[in-house]
Amino acid sequence: MDEKLEVVVVGAGPTGLACAIEAAKENLKALVIEKGCLVNSIFHYPTEMIFFTSRELLEIGNIPMPSISVKPNRAEALEYYRRVAEFFRLPIHFYERVMAVSGSDGRFQVLTQRDGGRRHGYETRKVILATGYYDLPNLLEIPGENLPKVSHYYTSPHPFFQQKVAVIGGANSAADAALDLCRHGVEVTLIHHERELGRNIKYWVRPDVENRIKEGSIRALFETVVREIGEDWIRVETKAGETWQLENDFVFALTGYHPDFDFIKSTGVTLDPETCRPVCNAQTLESNVPGIYLAGVIIAGYETNEIFIENGRFHGKQIIADIRKKA
Fold first, then answer.
1. What is the span of the domain harbouring residue 274?
2. 253, 277, 309: which is the final residue of a domain?
3. CB within 8 A of 105, min separation 6: which ones?
4. What angle is formed at CA 235 by the lines to CA 231 and CA 241, rounded to 5 degrees?
5. What is the distance between the alpha carbons of residues 18 and 80, in angstroms, rounded to a whole number?
6. DSSP code for 120
7. For 127-139, what is each residue's pLDDT tens digit?
8. Based on the structure, what is the number of domains in the chain?
9. Whether pLDDT at 2 is above 60
10. What are the tens digits of pLDDT across the range 143-168?
11. Can you spell out the DSSP letters for 248-306?
12. pLDDT reported for residue 327
């Protein structure tokens, strides 16, 4: 083992950072290990994205978030979390993936691998898993999904100017992408398996996208699924069983994401076989494995719309309070 620690936090998203901040306040020797960059999920959000929530609900460590408007955008959030990490001098290892967690309470071994292939080991008393869910998309599992023209993440509209683009999904990500694309000269078809858009779409987005559909700027196919993706076409099927082929250049399959359940189970944490909710003490957030704590959206299993930055940011206080109490 390279280093002995009191707490290892897996994941440098807002929740993981909040956990590290609470550990620092209690003078616990902690390390955050992140497989990507700081707040990696937010970095991969659409470039012009505006948060659903207000700036004060994104704050961690009692550090105010400066923002031109009440609802900050992606760039402002990235700047804020960089400043917070610098202010608290949080020890973070970037581009280092946790491969395994073994051992027991008070003496865990955390094995990691960096992008270049080098492996490292850390010994720690406690482990906090705050790995989020944005890295693993819910796959369509249809022929052609692996073609280069298909993406499960949307960033910017410019490369798709005057192209035929299908957006699959009916939640916020799909609505935002469809609107952004149609306003930048893209021929957009929105495909959703339900009869209407999701109930949780942002209140200021819903009338916008519905009006664009009504006027024909966005073509919407409801109660429809994509069955196959080809080089320059997609094949769709309606709920009534009708199928036909559409000309297509690119596909954004924005069908949601899920936590890395395999990794969570590999640590010994038990998951509910139906919901994939991990066994977790609601007060302390300690899992069924003594010494391994869970923070953020992974607590909710498949129900990823239950926990956001707004409520996950408080998990650090619960966890560190329990660690300090047991110490």
1. 3-135+257-326
2. 253
3. 125, 126, 289, 290, 291
4. 170
5. 13
6. E
7. 999 999 999 999 9
8. 2
9. no
10. 999 999 999 999 999 999 999 999 99
11. -SEEEE---B---HHHHHHTT--B-TTT-PBPB-TTT-BBSSTTEEE-GGGGGTT-TTS
12. 81
